[in-house]
Design brief:
By secondary structure, this protein is α/β, with parallel strands linked by helices. It has a single domain, classed as 3-Layer(aba) Sandwich (Rossmann fold). The chain contains 9 helices and 9 strands. A 7-stranded parallel beta sheet has the order 3-2-1-4-5-6-9, with helices on both faces. A two-stranded parallel ribbon has the order 7-8. Helix 1 crosses helix 9. The longest helix is centred in the middle third of the chain and has 26 residues. The chain is globular and about 50 Å long. The termini are far apart. Bound molecules: NADP nicotinamide-adenine-dinucleotide phosphate. The site of NADP nicotinamide-adenine-dinucleotide phosphate has 31 residues, from helix 1 and strand 2. NADP nicotinamide-adenine-dinucleotide phosphate (NAP) binds next to helix 1 and strand 2.
Length: 252
């Protein structure tokens, strides 16, 4: 079966690990990136050197025109898109509620929620059997923050990921009879480009690790493996699910 995977935010962290591992499992991979041109091209070069097929596509997931374009470019280069991982996301934002800034909130939701929803729209147009497609599988990268409102100062981020989960459930039910499976994954704290600066602070890291039942942060590949399982036919009866990949969640 032809398997073409588009990964948004695929040049670093969880998205990059997913792209690399997908390529070794027979997926043709389109790697979307925003600013990480060299990283995206290096991953493509590695995949191609190992005999796989991959392309790198610049595009801002907060911009609808970029989203539409990367879907078109992926199809032109690699054929029909059968799989989508929405990993592009930002955690920087307004901080505590009394410091909220409307523009920062709008940007957070533009990337984490609206961009992700528009990517799902583009995927649904192509994958849905109602539209002549052959079905497909989608994983939206949410966060454990969605479950408890996030760590202190992360309420806006948590709200954006809560929206991802609610949307995933609704979309999954809508698309279930049209051959599309949609699930979300909720990583706990994972060492990636998003968190590495904060985790270099030993006291912060110790505080975080104490709050995780497994007593450690996760690695990007541990999330990527779970994403690949959700994308695969091994998860063929699973849609609208939220999979926690978080070392047991939080001890509170
Ligand atoms: N690391 C964690 O502890 C953790 C926990 C729970 C959930 N998550 C979620 O996991 C996902 C991946 O994060 P990560 O940990 O792998 O961190 P990461 O390495 O920072 O990955 C996020 C990627 O998204 C890209 N991105 C951001 N805004 C974008 C935009 N507007 N358009 C296109 N790409 C954009 C970033 O590229 P630029 O740097 O070029 O903007 C970056 O490559 C995110 O959705 C995040 O919220 C992470």
């Amino acid at each position: 079966m032809n398997k073409t995977l588009l990964v948004t935010g695929g040049a670093s962290g969880i998205g990059a690990e997913t792209a690399r591992r997908a390529a070794t499992r027979g997926y043709k991979v389109a790697i979307n990136y925003r600013s990480r041109d060299a990283q995206a091209k290096a991953i493509v070069a590695d995949i191609v050197a190992k005999g796989g097929q991959a392309i790198a596509l610049p595009g801002d997931m907060a911009h609808e025109t970029d989203i539409v374009r990367i879907f078109e470019e992926t199809e032109r280069a690699l054929g029909p898109i059968t799989h989508l991982v929405n990993s592009a996301g930002i955690s920087t934002g307004p901080g505590r509620v009394d410091a909220y800034d409307a523009a920062a909130l709008a940007n957070l939701f533009a990337v984490n929620v609206i961009g992700l929803m528009l990517c799902c729209r583009e995927a649904a147009k192509r994958m849905s059997t109602r539209n002549g497609g052959k079905g497909g599988a989608i994983v939206n990268v949410s966060s454990m923050a969605a479950t408890l409102g996030g760590r202190l100062g992360s309420s806006a981020y948590a709200a954006s990921k809560g929206a991802v989960d609610a949307f995933t459930k609704g979309f999954a039910r809508e698309a279930a009879s049209e051959g599309i499976r949609v699930n979300s994954i909720r990583p706990g704290m994972v060492l990636s480009e998003m968190t590495e600066r904060r985790l270099q602070d030993a006291a912060f890291r110790a505080h975080i690790e104490t709050s995780i039942p497994m007593r450690r942060v996760g690695q990007s590949h541990e999330i990527a493996e779970a994403i690949l399982w959700l994308l695969s036919d091994e998860a063929s009866f699973i849609t609208g699910a939220m999979l926690d990949a978080a070392g047991g969640g939080y001890i509170i």
